[in-house]
TrEMBL record:
<feature type="domain" description="HAT C-terminal dimerisation">
    <location>
        <begin position="239"/>
        <end position="317"/>
    </location>
</feature>
<dbReference type="Pfam" id="PF05699">
    <property type="entry name" value="Dimer_Tnp_hAT"/>
</dbReference>
<dbReference type="GO" id="GO:0046983">
    <property type="term" value="F:protein dimerization activity"/>
</dbReference>
<protein>
    <recommendedName>
        <fullName>HAT C-terminal dimerisation domain-containing protein</fullName>
    </recommendedName>
</protein>
<dbReference type="InterPro" id="IPR012337">
    <property type="entry name" value="RNaseH-like_sf"/>
</dbReference>
<dbReference type="InterPro" id="IPR008906">
    <property type="entry name" value="HATC_C_dom"/>
</dbReference>
Amino acid sequence: MRCLKITLKTHSDTRWASKYNAVHSLYCQFGGVIKALRDISTNPIFGDGVANAESILKQFDLEFVYFLVMWDKILNQIYRVNKLLQSSNISIDQASKMINCLNVSLQEMRDSGNEQIKTEAISICDKVGIKSELKIKRTIKRKVMSGENSSGEDISADQFLTLEYYKVLDNMMAQMKWRFEQLSNIADDFQFLSAHSLSVTPVEKLKKYAADLAIKYNEDIDQEIINEIEFFKYQVKAILPDLNATALNILNAIKKYELDSTCPNLMTAYRLFLTMPVTVASGERSFSKLKLTKKYLRSTMSQNRLTNSAILSIEHEITKSIDFKDVIEDFASIKSRKFKF
């Protein structure tokens, strides 16, 4: 394996990042993988590995390389957005915009066609010594309705690759639209609370949006938010000179200028918006920390100690900033026994 600079990654069904890492590591060093397999297949010292290497080499053709290039380009776009969505500081409106931009990039890939992918796949095949030829025909079977003759449709291998390319992108964009539909709806409900919308949207429209929000979240927000939004529209320019301020900046400004008593429902709305999680990645990481905290050497750890240890591990940045001298002194002063003589 001296031909490979990066270890080939395994695929996992539960982690999106593993899909990209597995494809990208093979894509970046496909030539090295071919060379390693050829070395194994010609060296009898590997025993059964010779037959396995030969079997794998037979599966590497232009069609395989085409799909490798295609998936690397698609997953590259998704992987980077996926990493951004896992950030603990991202809000729902930012996540919605990122997903919309991802849909636009996938649509542009679809509109531009697959000729660039075909050209790159042929170039890779020529470099590593694989035949850059496609099979002559494939038979596509479709569902036969009553009264029709059962016959397959013959298409060329080139047409098959093109159909698969469009099928993958269409399916992916449809799934993303369905999966993130609720997130987009929530972002639309709170959109009028952004600094830009407050400054440019007419008062009557803001009142309508506020009334709709109060109806939807009637357990936390009452109809008084209609009057609060009218008041706050003209105050936002005074407390926020920057119209590109985030929802968190606006909430901090409300607290700073003590407007929370004047606009309690508005403050609740901002808190609701900011506390809605975009993903469950942070929660999943917390559960992953349990395996590191409660090892087999700590199998008798009590629940109380496990909970406290997990919090210290999860909030390690805050833990590192604590001065343990002060903690020890506080603990000693609490536990100290005073004797009166």
